[in-house]
Design goal:
582 residues; mainly alpha
Length: 582
């Protein structure tokens, strides 16, 4: 356990010296290491003693660091692959067609590539748990940082009950009794709470094995899909003759024109939610400066191989006018088997005549959704604790127990999981209430990603203005400032596309005020938090000379870094390019 505070010689900046729990937000203090508890049962959260508060001394506390590089790499490459990819892609295909599906996910992939690399540069240089909002506070505006912190906590607090509901509905593929939904919600909530008892290590191990399973099955799916596209499917299925790109001609590459194209952005953005968690997880790895760059590079392969290539195959094998993508049979009746029955990945198994493959893919969906539920608890609790440590949330959320768990923050997020039971309220009223709750997190990720890019732009501007050079940055984003501008502009364009889709539904129906606010409610909520933050902190947009780039920088082995850079300079061009992505 380390105490994350400022390095000697760092500037205190000009954000003021607001005291938080006996420390100054930007005052320099020494970094002190505190060893984990020596008792095995206490250290791993397996006895009553582990729940007691541990005194770590003054300062902003960094959580335990049990994560290994293998955990970070798997979180980066497969951690956030969930319902948006496996299930939501079906509705996106129905709304926009295969070309819109492919292009929109590619565009969001380019955006996320730049977001994660910008985050990686900041996270290697500034080791702060819950770092997304702290970067906004430090480089943009403390009021905006306040809004981004609560926006992120709210996002995950609402996503947890949503994912629990999807877990229960996914079980409906085998058990479609509606009276059992509440039982399955309770089972998965208890399971997630149990894994959370093991803290960061429990989350890391769960993510490692679930990501490995998801990635393995996605690769198997793509191999099977390739064989089916080439006409090698079973003779009793639909894919025993060459398929090629016929779905791009009949019914067509694009559906519903520009409206359909814009509507797919919403699904694509939701599918990529959680990609930024690798930055949070890095704070709990043993050597973030070494393991984080490698993990960030894995995001490139996730985007390229899994999202883009996987959905390209889906667009080749499933027609965009297939009524099952919208959860209906050809006769317009509700499709049996729950939402996962409408997954294009499940439909490929059904149409190919591969007995049992649809069940296997449904298990993949179930594991993926539960994985996102675990990420909700992890991401929400870590950010809430970091906010409390800097005075942006109630102080009792700073409670960290002897096993290194942010106890009250974790409990609060898990309690939000109880909202999942609203979905099973009688007379269908639960659906409407739940839709409004989910709307609170609908666009939250876009604000987080855009803020990361803007923070990186502002950091680079201040870094240069205060006399620093790029050689002093240990890990640099591939796209640099230009990449962050691309990411920020794409975030804004996707936000505009979402608003446009709400005002002009792709199916040609008349827009309604309810559907508009369900899609865009996150915008006024973020603005509300920004206003609260402004009146509380009494600060606005930071000028370049106000931005503190020196304090709280990570101590690095510059001899080793410079030696490696000299070695890199001797590499051939192809190897230097490959190193950016591998």
């Amino acid at each position: 356990m380390g105490i994350v505070d400022q390095e000697k010689g760092g500037s205190s900046g000009s954000l003021g010296a607001e005291e938080v729990g006996g420390i100054h937000e930007h005052s320099p203090v020494h970094i002190q290491d505190v060893e984990p508890d020596s008792d095995f049962w206490t250290r791993n959260g397996l006895n009553a003693e582990s729940f007691k508060k541990r005194f770590y001394g003054p300062g902003i506390i960094e959580l335990e660091r049990p994560m290994k590089p293998r955990h970070l790499h798997m979180i980066a490459i497969g951690g956030s692959i969930g319902a948006g990819f496996f299930v939501g892609s079906g509705k996106a295909l129905a709304n926009g067609g295969p070309a819109s599906l492919f292009l929109d996910f590619l565009i969001i992939g380019i955006m996320m590539f730049n977001v994660v690399y910008s985050l990686g540069e900041l996270a290697v240089l500034y080791p702060v748990s819950g770092g997304f909002y702290t970067y906004s506070t430090r480089f943009i505006d403390p009021s905006w940082g306040f809004a981004m912190g609560w926006n992120y906590v709210m996002q995950w607090a609402i996503v947890l009950p949503f994912e629990l509901t999807v877990c229960a509905i996914t079980i409906g593929y085998w058990d479609d009794n509606p009276d059992h939904v509440a039982i399955y919600i309770a089972v998965f909530l208890v399971l997630i709470a149990t894994i959370s008892l093991f803290g960061a290590l429990g989350y890391a191990e769960e993510e490692f094995w679930s990501s490995l399973f998801k990635l393995t099955m996605t690769v198997i799916f793509m191999v099977i899909a390739l064989v089916c596209v080439l006409g090698g499917g079973p003779s009793d299925g639909k894919y025993h003759t060459y398929q090629g790109a016929h779905t791009w001609y009949d019914p067509g590459a694009f559906k519903h024109g520009f409206k359909g194209f814009c509507s797919v952005f919403v699904t694509a953005a939701f599918a990529f939610s959680g990609t930024e968690l690798v930055g949070l997880a890095a704070a709990e790895s043993k050597n973030p400066a070494k393991s984080l760059p490698g993990a960030v590079k894995q995001v490139f392969w996730r985007i390229t191989l899994f999202y883009v290539l996987g959905l390209f195959f889906v667009g080749l094998l499933i027609r965009s006018d297939d009524s099952r993508l919208l959860g209906q049979t050809e006769n317009g009746e509700p499709l049996k088997g729950g939402a996962s029955a409408a997954s294009p990945f499940v439909l490929v198994g059904n149409y190919a005549g591969l007995n049992g493959f649809d069940h296997i893919m449904n298990v993949v969906i179930l594991v993926s959704v539960m994985s996102i539920g675990m990420s909700s608890v992890y991401g929400g609790s870590r950010t809430l604790t970091a906010m409390a440590q800097t005075g942006y949330a109630p102080q009792f959320f700073t409670y960290i127990d002897k096993s290194g768990r942010p106890l009250w923050s974790t409990i609060l997020i898990i309690v939000f999981g109880l909202l999942a039971f609203i979905k099973v309220a009688p007379n269908g009223k639960g659906d409407s209430i739940f839709d409004w709750l989910l709307a609170l997190s609908g666009l939250a990720a876009l604000f987080t990603w855009g803020s990361i890019c803007l923070a990186h732009i502002r950091f680079r501007t201040a870094w240069k203005a205060q006399g620093h050079t790029l050689d002093e940055i240990p890990f640099r984003a591939v796209g640099g400032v230009i990449g962050s501008w691309i990411g920020l502009i794409l975030c804004i364009l996707v936000l505009i596309a979402t608003i446009y889709s709400s005002l002009a539904p792709p199916d040609g129906s008349s827009p309604s005020a309810e559907s508009f606010f369900i899609n865009c409610l996150a915008i006024p909520v973020v603005m509300f938090f920004w206003v609260i933050g402004f009146f509380w902190k009494k600060t606005g947009w930071l000028r370049t000379d106000q931005i503190d780039v020196d304090s709280n920088r990570r101590e690095l082995d510059w001899d080793a870094i410079n030696a490696f850079r000299q070695e890199q300079a001797t590499w051939p061009a192809w190897r230097r390019v490959a190193y950016l992505f591998v």
